[in-house]
Amino acid sequence: MTHIYERLGIKPIINALGPATRVSGSIMPTEVADAMRDASQYCVDITSLQARASQIISGHTGAEAGYVTSGAAAGLLLGTAACVTGLDPTRMNRLPDTMGMKNRVVMARSHRNFYDHAVRSVGIELVEIGIADRYSGAGVRDAEPWEYAAAIDEHTAAVVYVAYEHTQPDLASVVAVAHEAGVPVIVDAAGQLPPASNLKRFIVEGADLVAYSGGKAIRGPQASGILCGRRDLIEAVALQHLDLDILWDQWNPPVELIDKRHLPGAPHHGIGRPCKVGKEEIVGLLTALDLFVQQDPAARRADWLTLMEQLLSAAGEIRGVELALVNDPKRSEIPVVTAQIDADVCGMSALDVIRRLQDGDPSIQANPTHVRAGGVAFGPMCLKEGEPEIVGRRLREVLSA
Ligand SMILES: *Cc1c(COP(=O)(O)O)cnc(C)c1O
């Protein structure tokens, strides 16, 4: 039996890194792939499908409305555009020219990352605040709520907040100062699942829009994501994303997503058009989201733990390597195996190990985050049955060479 990658002459890799885009994200449950295949055999009105998606996402997140995007980064672009234009079609048509509009977005320096290209591409000016000297080691502080308040003025369209365990200040205090000034807060929560409770958490904490990846832990299509939040903002998102090449009098969008009475006329194709989402992605994401929410977190964790135990036992004892199973549910829902490499004993560095695993056959991807400190890590999220043993054996082989 050959599979598509064999026919294309592309060798699949063993992914012990996790659902990163450069290694093609996660592996979809077959139910999700089947739903996408099913979806691909019909044509539907895409606005009606997004309106239905809005209801379903709203049910899972507690937000007023939701939308399926082509990824969390697309969600940041669309959300920023919505905050800049509101429901004004003239402004939508002018983007990324934001002259005369609310065109500044406030972000803490410690939150900056290269996904914020998506925010900047809307034509806004990014206003950075705070000095995170807790990172440089020179101090203990990060951006503080009063610094957000000082940076917000009549030109501020939004605050963008990147949610991680270690993020400071806490979201609720940022929301408090932003809302005091009538400014919406967009949360980048791309990788903040699991736990599934985080689907509701940021909305509860007052976020106006929250962006998630669909291709990470949700295990939806790699090119999918969720944006959820305020109904008026999701309406502005839809208006700048959907194909609007239609006559006003013919156009009949579902009122729950787009209410024509809010508009003097329809905008044209918007700034979000390059972030197109197909029916297959929408259906795949919704299917994956349902499965993700239904799955018992304890069972998911137990499956992951088994994979990591298999990897660990296949690796066995390796001279110069301290292998450990990191399994602390309070710190992370995802158990991982770490290998601390003593370069003097092993005759190679952690980076050498990563590269040899990658360049071997089969190619194995491990997590290089702590490579400078001698650490190589392995995660369970994208491993298939039988693969942990291969990874463990390969690790032993590479280090005994
Ligand atoms: C993964 C990630 C993104 C991008 O998500 P996509 O769904 O791939 O667009 C954005 N922000 C953060 C913090 C991420 O981890």
Describe the structure concisely.
This protein has helices at residues 4-8, 30-39, 46-61, 72-85, 89-94, 117-120, 133-136, 145-151, 171-180, 198-204, 231-239, 279-294, 297-315, 343-346, 350-359, 387-400; strands spanning 14-15, 65-69, 104-108, 125-129, 156-162, 185-188, 209-213, 225-229, 321-326, 336-341, 364-365, 375-378. It has 401 residues and is of the alpha/beta class. A 7-stranded mixed beta sheet has the order 2-8-7-6-5-3-4, sandwiched between helices. Strands 9-10-12 form a 3-stranded antiparallel beta sheet. A two-stranded parallel sheet has the order 1-11.
Can you lay out the helices and strands and say which pair or pack?
Blueprint: H1 4-8, E1 14-15, H2 30-39, H3 46-61, E2 65-69, H4 72-85, H5 89-94, E3 104-108, H6 117-120, E4 125-129, H7 133-136, H8 145-151, E5 156-162, H9 171-180, E6 185-188, H10 198-204, E7 209-213, E8 225-229, H11 231-239, H12 279-294, H13 297-315, E9 321-326, E10 336-341, H14 343-346, H15 350-359, E11 364-365, E12 375-378, H16 387-400
Parallel strand pairs: 1-11, 3-4, 3-5, 5-6, 6-7
Antiparallel strand pairs: 2-8, 7-8, 9-10, 10-12
Helix pairs in contact: 2-12, 3-12, 4-11, 8-9, 13-16
The structure holds pyridoxal-5'-phosphate.
Pyridoxal-5'-phosphate is lined by residues 21, 71-73, 115, 162, 188, 190-191, 213, 215, 225.
